[in-house]
């Protein structure tokens, strides 16, 4: 199976991080491809950025349809997901939905830790749309700009870690969901550090599509 991960923003370093996380999670026989939306904003932080990213993202779905057996929209806001599904007969999944459904498996409660507060309403609406409102304890912002996660030596990771600690103390979730594709390399580290399941949507999307392929 060939899975094409599309980064809706124009930051190539984030695409590389996403691709590396997906390849590490993929089973033998799953081939990971990636594409960057060079027509998009540098990062997606809130609905305005999502709207700006959508035309280029959708164009990539149409242009690359023959290259892949399934597509992943690698933005936690699941930017353009419903429209993208109308452009191809192949599976299209967003990393937000993939991560939250994995976290909610077995009716487990979870909290989402994302980047900036401007993203909270979009994610909360998706939680409701996916029927997960009863299991999502809270969508929380670490107030870390997306691109700070790409800066070597920045304090962004520790700021996210502090918000996870606050979530565990205040929300009492059974799991934590990382609400940004730029956090794709942090899930295992944070799971070991905090002793709870921590879900990243990139890995969850690979696993969900592999399971769907086996069941087909």
Question: Short summary of the structure?
Answer:
This protein has helices spanning 12-25, 47-63, 81-85, 95-103, 120-129, 156-170, 187-194, 201-215; strands at 2-7, 31-36, 70-73, 92-94, 110-114, 136-141, 175-179, 198-200.
What does this structure look like?
- With 216 residues, the chain is α/β, with parallel strands linked by helices.
- 43% of the residues lie in helices and 18% in strands.
- The chain is built from 8 helices and 8 strands, in the order βαβαβαβαβαβαβαβα.
- It has a 4-stranded parallel beta sheet, with helices on both faces.
- Helix 3 (81-85) links the parallel strand 3 and strand 4 (92-94).
- The protein starts with a strand and ends with a helix.
- The model has no long low-confidence stretch (mean pLDDT 95).
């Amino acid at each position: 199976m060939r899975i094409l991960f599309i980064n809706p923003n124009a930051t190539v370093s984030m695409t590389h991080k996403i691709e590396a996380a997906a390849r590490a999670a993929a089973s033998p026989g799953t081939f990971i491809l990636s594409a960057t939306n060079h027509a998009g904003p540098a990062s997606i932080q809130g609905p305005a950025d999502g709207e700006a990213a959508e035309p280029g993202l959708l164009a990539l779905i149409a242009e690359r349809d023959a290259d892949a057996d399934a597509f992943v929209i690698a933005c936690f806001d699941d930017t353009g997901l419903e429209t993208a599904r109308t452009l191809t007969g192949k599976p299209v999944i967003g990393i937000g939905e993939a991560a939250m459904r994995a976290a909610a498996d077995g009716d487990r409660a979870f909290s989402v830790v994302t980047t900036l507060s401007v993203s909270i309403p979009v994610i909360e609406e998706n939680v409701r749309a996916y029927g997960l409102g009863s299991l999502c304890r809270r969508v929380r912002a670490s107030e870390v700009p997306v691109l700070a996660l790409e800066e070597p030596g920045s304090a962004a990771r520790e700021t996210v870690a502090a918000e996870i600690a606050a979530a565990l103390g205040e929300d009492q979730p059974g799991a934590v969901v990382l609400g940004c594709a730029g956090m794709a390399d942090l899930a295992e580290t944070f799971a070991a550090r905090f002793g709870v399941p921590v879900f990243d949507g990139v890995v969850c999307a690979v696993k969900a599509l592999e399971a769907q392929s086996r069941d087909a």
